[in-house]
Amino acid sequence: MDITQIDFFITQLGYYFNAILIPVATAIIGRKLVKEKKVKGAYNPIRALIFGIFLSFSVLGIIEFFLAVPPFELSLLQEWFGEGIESFDIYGFIIGTMVTLGLTMIFYANRWEPLYYSAMFVYVGMFIFYLLTGFDAWLETYIMITGAIGVVFLYFTGFRVKDNGALGLAIFFTIAFGTILIEDHMVTQISILIYSVFILIFSLGYFKPFKEVRA
Amino acid sequence: MAEIGFLIIEIIYFVLGLMTIFTTIKNWKTNKNRMLIAVSVYIAAVLVRSVIDMAVYAFSFDIDITVVGNLTVGMIMGFILFTIQLEFMFYLMNLPKLYTLPIIVSTYLIMGRILVDSSMPFIIYAMITSYGSAFFLIKDGRKSRNGVAIGMGLFFLIWGLGSTFQIEVLFVILRLVAMIALLLGARGFYEKYVFVNIEEEQKIMGTWIAKLVVKE
Q1: Do the Cβ atoms of A125 and B99 come within 8 Å?
Q2: For a pLDDT cut of 90, what percent of chain B falls above it?
Q3: Which of A53, A65, A118, B31 sits a CA distance of 20 to 30 A from A180?
Q4: pLDDT tens, position by position, B33-42
């Protein structure tokens, strides 16, 4: 097996992981969310936001799978999907949604009430602005800044309030953003495998570094 | 000539605004209602705009100076005022989750104004802000028999009408009427003469009928 074959294998595996493991993890979190709603009578906003982030990521993973894996080459979808975070195509929109939900989660976790919907207002406003004027030059900057703030504050929140959810998402976002920023193909593909497995562990509830402290 | 007329109306409007502020602060000292402070802050912001308008009419300034793209100084001031108005509303409605919304909306509208030469988004924003606020305040004011809320609601309603028509004479006159409506609210006019105290009225009526019966 030469390096090209290994690369191909890891890439394909990454697509399968993205399209299967992440939706499974999303379903597990969704089930927990509904279960909790039945017991407490209301949705837990933090869990709902985590579900939203994972759902966005699942959609992204599934579309990427259909675009990249040979039998499903869809040219029109490829056109709509786009390639980066520079414009409001499917890829940019979903990544933008994820960082927005991540930031919203930080506001909720820290109970900064006046900021609860701020990130959503900014993002929805940006999207409406794009629909009306066709201007989306600030999307990339928004994703970069919000993503960076999100990761830093998720770590901060995770350690400050000893929240497994925030810390788990911080680790996930660090790896996921790494795949966007790192140019090396092999490293990106290995990162995809790592975060896919990590998401599954996280959703199953095995990621509990603060277990002892809470008890 | 018209400018002098506008200036006189503007001065009267300014004086009435000051009277409203003094009245609300005076009332606040006795009942410590936070709404009165919010009203004072809002009217103070409105009066800042009034000072600029007075200067415009007195010295024929042009506030329609373009800052960038299609954005003018007058429009920036309008956006600031509507932002404060919406903040004031969310404060009264006790909706802290929406505190950042007015700033974000205004920012996008300002950006939009830079790129596109259309006043329509501004007019729509002004209408939503004014009529929405007016509806809430008049409805709530009637329910709670609060004259200041009714006055503020009428102020937004009449001001909103003026902004919608975009005719200067109408705008200046309606603004003055709006301030009079607010001053009346602050001075307790609506509590005294508009809200009928049913219990009190029935008591008077009862006494009157009783007197008639005794006479007969």
Answers
A1: no
A2: 16
A3: A118
A4: 777 888 888 8
pLDDT band at A215 (very low <50, low <70, confident <90, very high): very low
DSSP, residue by residue, chain A: --HHHHHHHHHHHHHHHHHHHHHHHHHHHHHHHHHHHHHHSS--HHHHHHHHHHHHHHHHHHHHHHHHSGGG--HHHHHHH-SSSSSSSHHHHHHHHHHHHHHHHHHHHTT-GGGTTHHHHHHHHHHHHHHHH---TTHHHHHHHHHHHHHHHHHHHHHHTT-HHHHHHHHHHHHHHHHHH---HHHHHHHHHHHHHHHHHHHTT---TTHHHH-
Cβ within 8 Å of residue B38, ≥6 positions away:
B88, B91, B92
Q: Do B112 and A114 touch (CB under 8 A)?
A: no
Q: Tell me how many degrees the CA angle A8-A9-A11 measures, rounded to the nearest 5.
A: 65
B157: Cα separation from own chain's centroid: 7
Residue A34 lies in a domain: yes
Mean pLDDT of the A18-31 span: 86
Instruction: Say yes or no for a CB contact (<8 Å) between A133 and B97.
Output: no
**Within a domain: residue A188?**
yes
ipTM: 0.79
Domain count, chain A: 1
For residue B104, list chain A residues with Cβ-Cβ distance below 8 A. Answer: 118, 121-122, 125
Tens digits of per-residue pLDDT, A176-201? 877 777 767 777 778 888 888 888 88
